[in-house]
Design goal:
Blueprint lengths: L1 H16 L3 E6 L4 E4 L1 H7 L3 H4 L4 H5 L15 H6 L6 E8 L5 E12 L5 E10 L8 H43 L5 H32 L7 E3 L1 H18 L2 E7 L6 E3 L1 H17 L5 E10 L2 E7 L28 H11 L3 E5 L6 E7 L2
Parallel strand pairs: 7-9
Antiparallel strand pairs: 1-2, 1-5, 3-4, 4-5, 6-8, 9-10, 10-12, 11-12
Length: about 375
């Protein structure tokens, strides 16, 4: 017994020295262990926490203020058998009356019979690093720059050409006016020349932007859509779980391979799934289904968010149109351009809850 007490004491000291917060709760969610790192991260002392329900102390919630004490609690999901382990990003109330984002990773502790008796939570302060993965950020950035360049070229190039033509006409008219003195005519010609030079410079700039935005010929190959979806889900799953979102992927039937540009199709689908994740700040399920329908492969993405109001449904694919704070209005338009370049369509379908987007890719 004495040897066991010594080992327990050593383990407690070891856990107290690690840099990450370690918290252990019993089946009633009462805290039985709270290391020094937890005190540093949460600004709560052991005396404040031990023996109490963690939810009453931390008041865990999402960015929209939804309380997670009873719903979407990762610890309770483990106890109830919904997940074997999990992670979530949570906003917690700290002991100094401030709020902080933490990543809480939970795992069960089982007895000799395999029954869950406790939950161990690893807590990390992520207030300064809360963001999407580098690949998702890069995807969004490329989408934004490319679509912006295309829009710039469309909006600016035609007016520039028209202005240039008018300046050429003006130059010819000045040359034909006999009453203007040679000096005045020369000054007017110089003005026209300067304007034309600047117009040509801007036109060249727009051409460069247009060249940047062009995707060129599609680099098509025989691709398994199921493999693409699996790659995307694997990429997004860790971040989705931090938001309390489960991604359920279903591949129905035996899907034939299709001739598509894998990278571009992947970007388009990625944008749609990111939209679905962002539509559920309080957590939920994102259903992704791929199936063959006639001569097409349909990929549907169904979220459980608040849905899209009827009055804006016909605007959501417009470039730069967005209702999100800080949104660019790029993602859906960019996805639509890629899908249409492959001869497919993307549409918003009626749904009882949330939003449902369907991508139809022809089987050639």
């Amino acid at each position: 017994m004495k040897n066991t007490d010594t080992i327990t004491h050593i383990l407690n000291q070891a856990l107290d020295c690690v840099s990450k917060g370690i918290m252990i709760q019993d089946i009633n969610r009462q805290v039985v262990f709270f290391n020094h790192a937890c005190e540093e991260i949460t600004k709560w002392s052991r005396e404040d926490v031990i023996g109490k329900d963690c939810g009453d102390i931390f008041m865990c919630h999402t960015s929209t203020g939804m309380c997670l004490t009873e719903k979407f609690c990762p610890g309770m999901d483990v106890f109830h058998g919904k997940i074997t382990k999990g992670s979530r990003e949570l906003l917690i109330r700290r002991g100094d009356r401030t709020e902080s984002w933490v990543k809480m990773s939970v795992s069960p502790i089982r007895d000799s019979e395999g029954k869950e008796t406790h939950i161990v939570s690893v807590i990390e302060d992520i207030s300064d690093v809360k963001k999407f993965s580098d690949e998702v950020i890069r995807s969004k950035t490329q989408s934004t720059l490319g679509a912006f360049a295309a829009e710039l070229a469309h909006e600016v190039k035609n007016p520039l050409n028209a202005m240039n033509i008018q300046m050429t006409v003006l130059e010819r008219e000045i040359q034909d006016i006999r009453k203007i003195s040679g000096k005045a005519k020369k000054e007017l010609i110089e003005i026209v020349t300067i304007v034309q030079k600047e117009l040509n410079r801007l036109s060249g700039f727009v051409e460069e932007c247009l060249h940047f935005s062009k995707t060129g010929e599609l680099n098509k190959s025989n691709v398994d859509v199921g493999d693409i979806l699996s790659e995307i889900v694997s990429l997004l799953l860790p971040q989705a779980q931090l938001y309390g979102i489960q991604i359920e992927l279903a591949i129905r039937n035996e899907l034939p391979k299709v001739m598509v540009d894998k990278d571009k199709i992947k970007q388009a689908i990625l944008n749609i799934l990111i939209n679905g994740i962002e539509a559920m700040p309080d957590g939920g399920k994102l259903h992704v289904i791929a199936e063959r329908v006639g001569h097409e492969i349909w990929i549907s993405c169904q979220d459980a968010g608040s849905g899209i109001p009827d009055e804006i449904k016909d605007k959501i694919f417009n470039l730069f149109y967005t209702t999100k704070d800080g949104g660019t209005g790029i993602g859906l338009s960019f996805a639509q351009n890629i899908i249409q370049a492959h001869g497919g369509v993307i549409r918003l379908e009626a749904s009882l809850r949330g939003s449902k987007f369907v991508i139809a890719i022809p089987i050639l």
